[in-house]
């Protein structure tokens, strides 16, 4: 493994300045991800295709991200996190340029494919934080990076349409490309050079990287929970705008505002987790917030709530999701038997797969039985996620002299397969 290591007495602190290169990287990727939705109609018109086909661009990007992520983690652990982040930023920038200049639909798909190959670096940024920090500092670092990532979707929604209004939709990709260039400069200056790695990278290297994870039933349960949670979280969230329009009669501007409020709930949940999870059983925290998420979505889509109530409950769901995600990523970093890059990128692939399946399942359920069926089936899947992770015997204690949460050895051994 090539990540830089530290003695306990010299562990760095996760200040905002130290985290800036990582934060800007994930922020730029989320802004890029926000560039399709607001312009789907305009892009379809300019490229002579349909809005549903434009929607498949995001599906292709997510699918590519999930597949390439399986290789990106072992690559990052073998060659170094800094190298792979820079390579990913290059691919993302190239993908943004192709998408912005696309003369036809196939070129747009090509750009999404290239960008999807670079997108797994989001998980590698979390791996950098997981490898560099420990205990409370690790949780704080992960929560801050995730909060900035969330802010990318919050700010991307109004920022890119404003740029497009002054130019055209292609101008939004110029902003995305500039963000990637700036992120690359900060990574070059802010992250230490990776040490030279001896030996070749072969298929056997990939298998060796995943072997500890595949042999650990607790970790497999966490990855399964991550994918199921993504289905239950993103499935309803994807169709929330259509629900606002069809059931509550909101105009596009008000739908955008409602989305921003809900995303703000996730941002708050990310930051709150960084402050409140110290000394808490992370499995119970994840399971509890995941159950709250499920109940909130069930209420939104099945109960006769007024519009302000729906927005409030959706915001509560987002808060629970943001809080639970930090609990999950911190838990993965604390319990993994493998290297950080492989651990985090596998989680990113699980999330991307769940996102794609959730979007597809949500559309199918709405077609079969309307929003009420979506509000029953996907929350049930989310409750299964909570049960999958709940381990009452797991406890946390502080490491002597460091105040860092750790699993007590007795309970840890009991839960081992």
How would you describe what is shown here?
With 417 residues, the protein is mostly helical. It folds into two domains: 11-190, MFS general substrate transporter like domains (Growth Hormone, Chain: A), CATH 1.20.1250.20; 215-417, MFS general substrate transporter like domains (Growth Hormone, Chain: A), CATH 1.20.1250. It is 79% helix and 1% strand. It has 16 helices and two strands. A two-stranded antiparallel ribbon has the order 1-2. Mean pLDDT is 85; it is low at 1-6 and 392-417. It comes from uncultured Thermomicrobiales bacterium.
Defining key terms:
single chain, 417 residues, mainly alpha, Growth Hormone, Chain: A, two-stranded antiparallel ribbon, 1% strand, disordered N terminus, cell membrane, transmembrane helix
- Strand percentage lies at under 5%
CATH architecture descriptor name of the largest domain? Up-down Bundle
Biggest sheet, spatial arrangement of strands: 1-2
Q: Class of the largest domain in CATH?
A: Mainly Alpha
Low-confidence stretches: 1-6, 392-417
Structural class estimated from helices and strands: mainly alpha
**Shape verdict:** globular
Q: Helix and strand string, N-terminal first?
A: HHHHHHHHHHHHHHHEEH
- How much is the radius of gyration in Å? 21 Å
**Strands, total number:** 2
Q: What is the CATH topology of the largest domain? A: Growth Hormone, Chain: A
For the residues shown, what is the average pLDDT?
85
Number of helices: 16
How many distinct folded domains? 2
**CATH superfamily placement of the largest domain:** MFS general substrate transporter like domains
Oligomer class:
single chain
| Cα end-to-end separation | 26 Å
Quick one: biggest sheet? Answer: 2 strands, antiparallel
């Amino acid at each position: 493994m090539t990540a830089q290591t530290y003695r306990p007495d010299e562990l760095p602190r996760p200040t905002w300045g130290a985290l800036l290169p990582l934060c800007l990287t994930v922020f730029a990727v989320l802004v890029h991800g926000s560039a399709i939705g607001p312009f789907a109609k305009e892009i379809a018109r300019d490229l002579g295709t349909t809005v549903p086909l434009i929607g498949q661009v995001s599906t292709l990007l997510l699918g590519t991200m999930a597949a390439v992520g399986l290789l990106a983690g072992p690559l990052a652990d073998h060659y170094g996190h800094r190298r792979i982040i820079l390579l990913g930023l290059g691919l993302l920038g190239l993908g943004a340029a192709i998408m912005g200049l696309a003369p036809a639909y196939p070129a747009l798909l090509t750009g999404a494919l290239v960008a999807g190959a670079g997108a797994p670096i989001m998980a590698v940024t979390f791996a950098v934080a997981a490898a560099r920090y420990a205990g409370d500092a690790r949780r704080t670092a992960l929560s801050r990076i995730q909060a900035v990532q969330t802010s990318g979707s919050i700010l991307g929604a109004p920022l890119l349409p404003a740029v497009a209004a002054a130019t055209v939709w292609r101008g939004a990709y110029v902003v995305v490309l500039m963000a990637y260039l700036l992120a690359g400069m900060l990574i070059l200056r802010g992250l230490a050079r990776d040490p030279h790695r001896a030996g070749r990278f072969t298929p056997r290297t990939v298998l060796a990287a995943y072997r500890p994870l595949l042999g650990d039933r607790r970790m497999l349960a966490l990855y399964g929970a991550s994918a199921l949670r993504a289905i239950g979280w993103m499935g309803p969230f994807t169709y929330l705008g259509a629900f606002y329009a069809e059931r509550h009669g909101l105009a596009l501007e008000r739908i955008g505002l409602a989305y921003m409020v809900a995303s703000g709930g996730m941002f708050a949940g990310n930051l709150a987790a960084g402050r409140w999870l110290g000394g808490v059983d992370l499995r119970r925290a994840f399971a509890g917030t995941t159950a709250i998420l499920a109940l909130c979505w069930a209420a939104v889509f099945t109960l006769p709530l007024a519009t302000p109530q729906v927005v409030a409950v959706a915001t509560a769901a987002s808060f629970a999701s943001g809080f639970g995600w930090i609990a999950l990523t911190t838990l993965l970093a604390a319990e993994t038997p493998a290297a950080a890059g492989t651990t985090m990128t596998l989680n990113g692939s699980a999330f991307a797969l769940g996102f794609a399946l959730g979007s597809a399942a949500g559309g199918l359920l709405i077609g079969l039985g309307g929003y009420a069926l979506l509000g029953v089936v996907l929350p049930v899947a989310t409750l299964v996620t909570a049960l999958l992770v709940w381990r009452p015997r797991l406890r946390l204690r502080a490491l002597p002299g460091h105040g860092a949460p750790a699993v007590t050895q007795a309970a840890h051994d009991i839960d081992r397969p």
